[in-house]
Amino acid sequence: MNNRLLLFLAAFLIVLPLVVVKHTEFAGADALAEEMIQQLAPNYEPWFDVFFEPPGGEVETLLFSLQAAIGAGVIGYIIGLYRGRKRNG
């Protein structure tokens, strides 16, 4: 029960900014690339539309950080798994 509560709380903290934070500005590499494309080829039309547009820059940063944390956790688990197998023979 305790683990389920912690998992629910973590999921709630991840989803909460997606709902609460609105209309914030974020100028990263994607925005700069879009500006450059508009300057070089003003008639260019994207091949597809964005599936999910985060409500703000902080949310986008949260999602990138979450992706990095999950990736680091998976890599750390795999390394630990192989080191444990090596030690146990």
From TrEMBL:
GO BP, one annotated term: cobalamin biosynthetic process
Keyword presence, Membrane: yes
Superkingdom of source: Bacteria
Pathway per the UniProt entry: Cofactor biosynthesis; adenosylcobalamin biosynthesis
Location relative to the cell: Cell membrane
InterPro entries in UniProt: CbiN (IPR003705)
GO CC field: plasma membrane
Topological category with respect to the lipid bilayer: Multi-pass membrane protein
Residues annotated as transmembrane: 62-82
GO molecular function annotation: cobalt ion transmembrane transporter activity
Keyword terms: Cell membrane, Cobalamin biosynthesis, Cobalt, Cobalt transport, Ion transport, Membrane, Transmembrane, Transmembrane helix, Transport
Role noted for this protein: Part of the energy-coupling factor (ECF) transporter complex CbiMNOQ involved in cobalt import.
Family: Belongs to the CbiN family.
Subunit structure, as described in the record: Forms an energy-coupling factor (ECF) transporter complex composed of an ATP-binding protein (A component, CbiO), a transmembrane protein (T component, CbiQ) and 2 possible substrate-capture proteins (S components, CbiM and CbiN) of unknown stoichimetry.
Name by which UniProt lists this protein: Cobalt transport protein CbiN
Origin species: Anoxybacillus thermarum
